[in-house]
Amino acid sequence: MKLALITGARGFIGRHLAKTLHKQGFKVCGIGHGAWPEVECSTWGVDYWLNGDITKRNLDIIQADFGQPDVVFHLAGGSSVGPSLAAPEEDFRRSVISAAELLEWARLATPDVRLVLASSAAVYGAGHNTPIQETNALAPYSPYGYHKRIAEELFESYGKNFGLNTAIVRLFSIYGPELKKQLLWDVCGRLSKDASRLQLGGSGNEMRDWLHISDAVQLLLLSAASACHDGYIVNGGTGVAVTVSQIAEQLCMAWGESTSIEFSGKSREGDPQYLVSNATKATSLGFTSKMSWQEGIADYVTWFKNININIGKLS
Predict the structure, then answer these.
(1) Gap between the Cα atoms of 125 and 142, Å rounded
(2) pTM of this prediction?
C-alpha cells in the first residue's frame, strides 16, 4: 500500500485530497494545527494525524510511526492576501519556514519522495488582461504572494541542487463544499440574513478563474506523477474567465430569491482586476475540468443551506 503525507490535511483542500487518496488505496497521514478526533479523521480518509508544526522533528516522528511516504502534498501555509497583510510574519512562517523544514527533512530522510507544493496565482501579481501562462513574469505584490513565491524557489532549489522530485501547482480561485471563508461563504452568509439586497466591494468586473475542489484534487494528483528534479510547474485553473458580478448573480439565482446586487466600486487592497489561467499545460497532463462554475456554485449553495439546517437542528 502506498503512503501519502499531507501537510495542512485538516484544511479545505487537504480534507478533499485525503478522501480521494484514501479511495485510491493510499494510506494517508496528515500534519497541521488543531485537535482532530479520530472519528472525524477517518471520515476524511486520514489514517494518522499529528497536531503540530511542520518541523524536521515532527516529520521524523511521523516517519517512525507511519512509515516513509511515497508522496508529500505540501498544503500548509498562508491561505489568502488579507491575513498576510494583517500578520506578515505569521504568514512567512506558515508558507516559507514550513516549506524549508519539509524540504530539509526530505533531503535527509526520504530523498526519493515526490513533493507537490500548492502555490497560488498570487505569484503573478496584477496588470494582466489575457490568460496567464506559467512562463509569464512573476510580480507578486502582497506578502502572501511573495511568500508563496519564496516557497516555490525553495522547492526549485532543492530539486536542482539535491535531486528531489518536485512539482508546483499555482492554484487560482479554489472553491467548493467545506470552504468557510472568502467570497462564496461571505455572500451566502449575507443572503441567509437578508436575500433582498446584496452589496459587495469592487466593480463586479474583476475576472477570476474558478476551480472546483474536485478538479483541484485531480490536478494535484496528476502533478505528483510529473514531479521532477527541475520542478514541474503548472497552473491550477480552468482557463475560463468569470466576473465577480456573474458569480454573485449565479449565487443569488441558486439561492432562489430575487436579490438586488450592488457594487461599491472600492476594491480591496491586494486584489488584482484579472487573474485567469492559461490551462494548456494542465490539459497536457490529461487534466479536464469536470465541474462547470455554474454547477459548482449551485453545489456550494446546496451545501451551505444543508449545514445551516443541521446547525439549526442542533441548536
Answers:
(1) 8
(2) 0.94
